[in-house]
Amino acid sequence: MIEPASSRRQALELHVEGVVQGVGFRPFVHRLAMRHRLAGWVRNESGAVRIEIEGPPDRLSAFVSELETEAPPLTRIDSLDVSTARPGLGDGFEIISSAEVPEGRLPISPDVATCPSCERELLDDRDRRFGYPFITCTDCGPRYTVIEAMPYDRERTSMRSFTQCEVCRHEYETPVDRRYHSETNSCAACGPSLRLLATRASADRDRVGGTGADGGPIAGGSGEVLAAAAAALRDGRIAAIRGLGGFHLAVDATDDAAVRRLRRRKSREAKPLAVMVADVEEAARIAVLGREEERLLRSHERPVVLLRARPGNGLAPSVAPGLDTIGVMTPYTPLHHLLLRQVRRPLVMTSGNVSDEPIAIGNAEARHRLGEIADLMVAHDREIVSRYDDSVVRVVANQPVFMRRARGYAPLPVMLPTATPRPLLAVGPHLKNTFALVHDRSAYVSQHIGDLENLETLSHFRDTLHRYQLLFRVDPEVAVRDLHPGYLSTRVAEELGLERVIAVQHHHAHIAAVAAEHGITDPVVGLAFDGTGYGDDGKVWGAETLVADLTDYRRVGRLRYAPLPGGDLAIRHPWRVALGYLSLAPELAAAFRLAIDGVSHRELAVAERQVSHRLNSPLASSMGRLFDAAAAVLGTRRNSHYEGQAAMELEALAGDRDAEPLPFPIRPGRNGCRELDPLPLLAALGELATRGGEPQELAARFHESVAAASSRLAAEACEESGVSVVALGGGVFQNARLMTSVRRRLETRGLRVLVPRQLSPNDGAISYGQAAVAAAVLRAEMSL
């Protein structure tokens, strides 16, 4: 007897949450169901996708398994709930209309790189999109930077200005096509276009590709624009190129005179510049690639990856002066692919701004702000809704560590281990600012905003916050800020007029950020090493050992306090930091000789008077400043062009050579807070340097001294507090050698070490740490 067909069929209902809308997930489900000959339907619901599916059990099992393993590249499945349903779905499978719930919150996919399929079409002269610089599909292209409101439909994006032609519309409406409901779908007949524009800087030079008034078009049509731009770049000129989240300033990375001209015009004296190369093979010719670095360069996020530079790589010396690393990225837009193929050499690609200002996004804005820097502009008419810098990543112990989190990663939420009972806005730090908008356990950490030191960046902060509130439908009731009363972010938090403002100490936020992203709520020992943070004693902190959970902390170790003559001025003048340490032990003057060689008598007298009279000489416990002092004592860097320059050069000098630590004692301190005394270390470095010691060897010994002493201090804190987990946070841990050595030493002692993975060690994670603390505090208050 043949078993009835109905008895061999089952039905399932699937509820999928995560980044599953606007990423081609429904067409993928449709194709998967058709492959397995299953019946049913799929539709978007608020914040999720719902699937009802029916068929033989073995096919259903394969469908559910492949739903997770074969999902489109931009999909992120956070949860998949499967339950039984009543059979009777009939035959065939369809995509049905969405069911929206007004209060629903949807994760939004970041902008990502051109996918392999689009890249093949872009370079195929038989394809109708051959050479089209805005080619996209559901698997790639802009998302966050074009979305104005949710739900994600074309009429709520900056693509609404472009009406699809009949061929594009057919692709958009065909479920089996990979451009089904691709909201940025277009072609040369109906989509955005390029223009080449003159600038003020080009007024006294030969026109590129034609004539034309200042700011007027000098070339039109994608092929003509790209050919003219490529010729100008090969000729050493500076181009402003409009990309996904703003303008880049581009120049031939092999032309030292051109790179120096860019630095002069951009007011960026020495800070390293990122380089874009045509492909991973070219990256391998100029730098050393490991497996993880190669994966990142090929990934759909395509961050800037810090790589060890190869000697004689052909790049201009002024690209990354004094460093052994170079920031490298591969093309992530069709325009980049086309331009790099024509230029046929690496290009500097740095943010389109004057130093310390936000990246320019609009054509008129770029003409105004970049007109004295760039010789020409490659512009387009697809408006950019949100400013979006490149992300920067380096690989440490075969794992990626963020230097800056932006394009490709934000605005995906970072989950909190403790749900907040009230929606929050954590406004973040003063420097390297991000904010975090929080609902329940989802922390929507913004892209990199920058240093809150001018009105332009404050405006960028406010614009981005407004967009986040609109997109994620979060109306905060509580603001969270840094403990520092004078930060601009503090003023922003206080002026919001919310029901409550919670202050969180800077280094507690650093450690909370690391613990929280690992889902840890129990106490940890934290090493929080950075440049500057306001301590609860009113002094400058930056080399702290804390025993902390998400609600509270106890300081159990620090660096010995030393005055910073000139306050913030010392950040740019490491000799001043060294002088502050010398004031604690004037008898060590001979060992500090190299630190003050060449400093004018007048400058030195002013700084000494500041220290002796305690004028603008705050006391600081700062690991970042200790690195500055060490560089000065070694004579490698007495004055810096940017914060962290001395430390970065020390790391480059140290390389990966083996070295023995120098004396760096731990002494008893007040209230059970031990003190790392750096004077014996600085004195030993200075004595060896003045006797002609090799700077590379001494830099390596300095790193190992810091690693040995701090790991010993952390281990002692673990033993005394009964804690077995150590969290490493703060910008100093962007130093790969230091992080690796500290981690290795602690793990050798049997301790578990947490390092940042989803966010940066630096201040870009502070807002998330503030949110984690505030959520835990509010939750604890509810239980009282």
Write the topology of this structure.
Elements: E1 10-19, H1 25-35, E2 39-45, E3 48-55, H2 57-69, E4 76-85, E5 93-95, H3 116-122, H4 166-173, E6 194-198, E7 217-220, H5 222-234, E8 239-242, E9 247-252, H6 256-266, E10 275-276, H7 280-286, E11 287-288, H8 291-298, E12 304-309, E13 325-329, H9 334-343, E14 347-351, H10 363-370, E15 376-380, E16 392-396, E17 399-404, E18 414-415, E19 424-426, E20 436-439, E21 442-445, H11 455-472, E22 478-482, H12 488-495, E23 500-504, H13 506-517, E24 524-534, E25 540-548, E26 553-559, E27 562-563, H14 569-572, H15 574-582, H16 593-596, H17 601-612, E28 619-622, H18 623-634, H19 645-654, E29 666-667, E30 674-676, H20 679-690, H21 695-721, E31 725-729, H22 736-748, E32 752-754, H23 766-782
Parallel strand pairs: 2-5, 8-15, 10-13, 12-16, 19-22, 22-23, 24-31, 25-28, 26-30, 31-32
Antiparallel strand pairs: 1-3, 1-4, 2-3, 6-7, 6-15, 8-9, 9-14, 10-14, 11-12, 12-13, 16-17, 18-21, 19-20, 20-21, 24-25, 25-26, 27-28, 29-30
Helix pairs in contact: 5-9, 13-23, 15-18, 18-19, 18-20, 19-21, 20-21, 21-22
